[in-house]
Design brief:
Elements lengths: L5 E4 L5 H11 L5 E5 H7 L2 H8 L3 E8 L3 H12 L5 E5 L4 H18 L5 E5 L7 H6 L6 H14 L4 E3 L5 H8 L4 E4 L18 H6 L4 E4 L1 H4 L4 H14 L1
Parallel strand pairs: 1-2, 1-8, 2-3, 3-4, 4-5, 5-6, 6-7, 7-8
The site of cytidine-5'-monophosphate has 17 residues, from strand 8 and helix 10.
């Protein structure tokens, strides 16, 4: 079973742990997410390793700075061979547009396929109380849609959002827009620090194109079995 819609979050700290998990999941998982904790400790070799294994890579470093700095950062990261990169929509329209244009220009100059660039809308760990505490008056779901539309207008390929918001994003941004959803929890599993969650099947039904799953697979007694259960649920959805 190989399904590019499932992205397993490699939230570990060492190359040994990466090799152990990727080895255990074997052919069941084709797409991995490398986040800050792994990239900051291991760096580029983890991408080389995953490419050697013919895996796809989502490099989830959530860049957020002024337009010129984020655009430059993305162009540096592009050389590492990730299939998908991301930035924070909260950096604003100009930051997203400058980043997208710079990335496409750099890819063209190098003669390589441009990695997908997506924007983080509102983190799936944030709940309504915390959102209000930060002074926001607009509801989370309205802000997510606002960010998604801005990201699309800025030339990005999609967004990261909660599976609970995927349906409204699909409606607002059309059929080719990528909707990558963390906060996936199979029925009965622990929610951990996630708040706006859904099951794998519900996320796909809502319009998600990719599901990011970490702890429900990584912390399972048998990660391969857990991944395959999720893949079956995805196939049936
Ligand atoms: O373990 P779990 O399934 O909660 O992992 C979710 C992964 O998705 C984590 O690596 C987290 O950094 C990432 N993520 C998220 N919410 C976002 C963006 C990324 O949970 N909005």
């Amino acid at each position: 079973m190989r399904d590019d819609r499932l992205i397993v979050a490699l939230d570990v700290h060492t190359m040994e742990d990466v090799k152990a998990l990727v080895g255990q999941l074997d052919d069941s998982v084709a797409y991995y997410k490398v986040g800050m904790e792994l990239f900051y400790s291991v760096g580029a070799p983890v991408l080389s390793y995953l490419k050697e294994k013919e895996k796809k890579i989502f490099l989830d470093l959530k860049l957020h700075d002024i337009p010129n700095t984020v655009a430059g950062g993305l162009c540096s990261l592009m050389g590492l061979g990730a299939d998908m990169l991301n930035i924070h929509a909260g950096g604003g329209f100009a930051m997203m547009q400058t980043s997208s244009e710079a990335l496409h220009a750099a890819a063209e100059e190098k003669g390589i396929a441009c990695p997908k660039l997506i924007a983080v809308t509102v983190l799936t760990s944030i709940h309504a109380g915390e959102w209000a505490e930060m002074g926001h008056v607009e509801k989370i779901d309205a802000q997510v849609i606002r960010f998604a539309k801005l990201a699309k207008k800025a030339g990005l390929d999609g967004v990261v959002a909660s599976p609970q918001e995927a349906g409204a994003i699909r409606e607002a941004c059309g059929k080719d827009f990528l909707i990558v959803t963390p906060g996936i929890r199979p029925a009965g599993s622990s929610t951990d620090d996630q708040n706006r969650i859904a099951t794998p099947a519900a996320a796909l039904r809502n319009g998600a194109t990719h599901l990011v799953v970490g702890r429900p697979i990584r912390s399972a007694a048998n990660p391969k079995e857990a991944a395959e259960r999720i893949l079956r649920e995805m196939e049936e959805a």
